Amino acid sequence: MLRPTEAATAPADPPRTRAVHLGVRERLAPYAFVAPFFLLFAVFGLFPLLFTFYVALFDWDPIGEHTFVGLDNFSRLLDDPRFWGALRNTFSIWVLSTVPQLLLALAVAHVLNHARLRASAFFRMSVLVPYITSVAATTIVFAQLFDRDYGLLNWLLELLGLPHVEFTASIFGSHLMIAAMVMWRWTGYNTLLYLAALQAVPRDVYEAAAVDGAGGWRQFRHITIPSLRPIIVFTVVTSTIGGLQVFTEPLLVSPGSLTCGAARQCQTLTLFLYEQGFGRFHFGYGSAIGVALFVMVVVVATINYLLITRIRSERP
Amino acid sequence: MSRRIAATLVLAAALLFSQACSGGSDDGSASSGSNTFEFWSFTGINQKADVDRYTKAHPETSIKLTEVGSTSETAQALTAALAGGKVPDLVLIQGDDLPKFMSSVDNFVDLNTLGADKMKGDYLDWVISQSTARDGKIIGIPTDVGGLAVAYRTDLFKAAGLPTDRDEVSKLWPTWDAFIGVGQRYVQATGKAFLDNAPTSVYFQAINQGNERYYDNADHKVSYKTNPQVKTAFDVTLKAIAANISAKQGSFSSGWTAGMGKGDFAVVSAPSWMLGSIRTNAPGTAGKWDVAAIPGDAGNWGGSFLAIPKRAKNPKAAWKYITETQSPAGQLDHFLLTGALPTTPSVYADPKLVAQTDPFFSGAPIGKIYTDSVTRLKPFYIGPEDGTIGTEFLNLLTSVEQGNVPPDKAWSTAMTNVEKAIRG
Amino acid sequence: MTTTSQSAPQPAGATEPRPHRHRRVSRVPWWMYGLLGVMTLGSVFPLYWMFVVSTTDSAAATSLPPRVVPGGNFLHLAGLVFDIVPFLQAMLNSLVVATAIGAGQALLCALAGFAFAKLSFRGRNTLFLIVVLTMTVPTQLSVIPQYLIISELGWVDSLTAVIVPGLMSAFGIFWMRQHIAHAISDELLQAARVDGATTWQIFWRVAFPLVRPAAFVLGLFGFVTAWNDFLWPFIVLKSPDKYTIQIAIKALQNSRDIDLGLAMSGSFLATLPLLVLFVFVGRRLVSGIMEGAFKG
Question: Which entry of A60, A82, A191, B118 is 20 to 30 Å from B57 by CA?
């Protein structure tokens, strides 16, 4: 959810607090305090992650046999048009949702940061309403709004004299529809992140720029954007990781099936994993998809790291 | 403020916890009682009618009926449960999903041990044989078969200048080609779609009219690639798609339901169990429908089985329910209530069944129409991957209808898809 | 911003800059209000429409032009919803799960955050780095082994399967550590230590009360996230009396004979508790998100 920007900073050493004699119990207390997290992480985080690699080497039927097949699942995956289709869909939905979402969030944050804006607390709350709405509810409403024959959106298009758009059944249309759901949910959230970063910019800077004759656009371009750069990188990274996990929307868009359309036109990677794992009960093949997802996460994290170090080095 | 909310939340949680826990323990003690059992069904089949009737006759019994989801979702939930969850005492399995479970019969109670051996003669041979393992174990009792027919809107037919009488309509389309022709006439006359969608209403009917489907009847090996009957059904569907006569609304989607209510298409292929779906999805169209014969041969689409998982807590109560509701008399009652066709041929000549008409469908003699189609059919072998193969063909044809796959690539794409799906 | 500054309590020593008084700031151009108006409308309309449909009947979901005035059918449809799936049970399940996760995260993260911020022990920095690193790897990709573990533990189909893994929150530890580092002076802890308090006592009597607002906001996020979570409950909760509210919505939506109007009613009912909660704590969520961004 909320994730800090530059996470990998080590904590500063606090002054020693054990001037008083400490018994064994006391000395172990810090470990006991952090133990719950590490215990949970070991059982439900680290072990499953490693075990994914192991299961991926098997033909693993949960109510039948487990047969070792080596790297067979991976070679089949690379040769599977369904996998590449899901990758394409995931990427396309990610681009379609992230780019407009972050641009809109930037604009709204800029507006919300205006010093004389009235009712700004109200607007801040209202943009956050989608965030607390569940994805399941959102999807059911949006799917109906985007319906081909009976949806509000196509009705509006018709009023404008335009032809109906086939959202659910077409590749691009279904991506647009799901991207709209993702965007609806997260724009307000990202707006608040940007707003927080904007408020960190001292107003004098803007005022000085105004005195120098810089107009609104130039202020935006030369003050707002540069000061937001780290948080923009952060939101891009989180939305990428989030984009790899899009699942509920494509699942609920086409009830009763796990493919998000007959042509798998909007099946995402996570939904493909679910279909193989819990629809078809091919645990081995599903785990291979999980490994592929892991590789992508590592790639994203690496790019993130490189970007952040570049930004740091750019600023004195 | 925050502390008060926190306190309220904690209090509420504590209350709920105690309630949830006590609820749980109630369930636990109840399901170990001899008269309570848990029943998983899928939606759209109206098992609730049977359950209500049964509990009325046996007020000491309590049945926890769950409509898990679609047929395949129910099968998935069952697989997950068999793999390590809480299993129901009784479960309804759709015919195409059954073969998969037949490959692990040990997960289910052999119903012969409860007395199925004495009643297996009551059921259509070709149906009970689907739930009979090679070694003779019976894991499912068939509840219904579909048969094949076509439901059509008389008012819309009339507006299009087509005949409305069910015999005349049946004569309009002795073959699928003729059916497509009628569709084109309808579209020309009204400018509206004729059919809900071609893949379900044409392919799923046509494929079930042959004497062999995706597996070879003799050696039980996959044969969809070479079986000419598959190709014929596939091609006639492509033809229907090309004729542009369908509303392209996937069966059971919300658009399909809405379109049915609004009369945006006039024809839906209707196995007997579909009648109930039409009735509940478009209640405003009562009396405007009728049922005609299917183009082509007799056949069957669908039908389900009741099975008892081996780890069931209360197999006895579940079995008692089966014997009573699935006896010939029980299935006849179910038919009279819902229109789903019995699997017990002894009641096919029953005056009540023969005389049964349905006012929602303009008084169509549904008993007669569907028993005709079932008694004439030629059974075929259904293999473990039948459900998967059927879904892939359906999805591919839907993709063609929706313009995502070009028709000339349809067959080759279907072959690749099916192969991938069977494998992984 | 100047007149409506955040009301949520700020941790002592937080570095949030005070907004300056506007001296020569221009008026707000009309298009800004226009943009905010559109944004607000867009954020609220889908929910409003969901409400409208759930007060009329299923035909309203597909009627064109769309219906925008609520009807009087809400109780009837709501009754149907409760009839079809064990909706009340699902509501209780969600409340149990979300409350347990929210409260558990608040407590466990405060504990670990305290240790990382104020206690010194061998391996602390390494352990903290691990915490931070786990934030980047989504748990979704290993759901299959997770399911195998849950089924080994015999937790399939129990709320425990959702609650226990949900208690793990690396972000929460990070967040609480920041707050504790800022909010609590070392002298205070030192004084407590001199008085002979144990580490646990120092945490529970001295540190935790000071960061309770931050822990509360963290718990809120945990609550909202758990309430809305879908994939994992969908995998491990199989029988309807164990469904959380989101899974119950799915069950409503995909049944063949059950129409969209009912699914909408269910969705609305499922969202309602959070909307009510939002009225009370929305401001704190807003400031929570903004602080979160800040601390990073």
Answer: B118
